[in-house]
From TrEMBL:
Monomer. This is Peptidyl-tRNA hydrolase. It comes from the Bacteria. Its main location: cytoplasm. One of its GO terms (biological process) is protein quality control for misfolded or incompletely synthesized proteins. It comes from Scrofimicrobium canadense. Hydrolyzes ribosome-free peptidyl-tRNAs (with 1 or more amino acids incorporated), which drop off the ribosome during protein synthesis, or as a result of ribosome stalling. Catalyzes the release of premature peptidyl moieties from peptidyl-tRNA molecules trapped in stalled 50S ribosomal subunits, and thus maintains levels of free tRNAs and 50S ribosomes. One of its GO terms (cellular component) is cytoplasm. TRNA binds at residues 16, 73, 75, 121. GO terms for molecular function: peptidyl-tRNA hydrolase activity; tRNA binding. Keywords: Cytoplasm, Hydrolase, RNA-binding, tRNA-binding. The keyword Protein transport does not apply.
Length: 197
């Protein structure tokens, strides 16, 4: 996998900031700030930034990567994101998607190449519009809702102010993982990430 496009899934608008469903978009924000990049509007209805990411062995700057979030709701984000990939002439196997995952404990990170969508509306929309599931995923665990709370309500619920510091650490670790994929490749980054957990 040669990484060229990193997508953070989330919903647009201030009302969705700090919700569990937006952990992918929050990680993109961390990367943009870390890399000194600037997000700009794109005709695909995405916001994008371009930057070199990481440091290669020997000290050379890492590869040039496009960072993106869709300017549309999660369940229809596949259209804008696939248009962006088509515009940039990027194939699915050159894409890494960062997203929330109910099936992982909160804060746990996992890398996965291809596979199903696990009921995730953002992934489902992206797979449909790309016509391909063979893109990389960085799964950020958010845990299961307590009691009988509806999962749809849980993912759209704001993360408590008391928990935000811990989530900020998770976003930084997720950003580290993206840099590792960009510099060392998916398989090596996956092996190291999973062996640490």
């Amino acid at each position: 996998m040669t990484l060229k496009l990193v997508i953070g899934l989330g919903n647009p608008g201030t009302q969705y900031v700090d919700t569990r469903h937006n952990v992918g978009a929050a990680t993109i924000a961390v990367l943009v700030k870390r890399l000194g990049a600037t997000m700009r509007s794109h005709t695909s209805r995405c916001h994008v930034a371009e930057a070199r990411i990481g440091i290669l062995p020997g000290g050379a700057p890492g590869p040039k990567i496009t960072l993106a979030v869709a300017d549309s709701y999660m369940n229809v984000s596949g259209g804008p994101l696939s248009r962006l990939a088509q515009y940039l002439r990027i194939s699915p196997d050159e894409i890494l998607v960062i997203h929330d995952d109910l099936d992982l404990p909160a804060h746990q990170l996992r890398l996965k190449q291809g596979g199903g969508e696990g009921g995730h509306n953002g992934l489902r929309s992206l797979s449909q519009h790309l016509g391909d599931r063979n893109y990389g995923r960085l799964r950020i665990g958010i845990g299961r809702p307590p009691g009988r709370q509806n999962p749809a309500d849980f993912v759209l619920e704001k993360i408590s102010s008391a928990a935000r510091e811990e989530w900020n650490v998770t976003y930084e670790l997720a950003a580290d993982t993206v840099e590792d994929v960009a510099v060392r490749g998916f398989a090596a980054a996956q092996q190291d990430l999973h062996s640490r957990s």
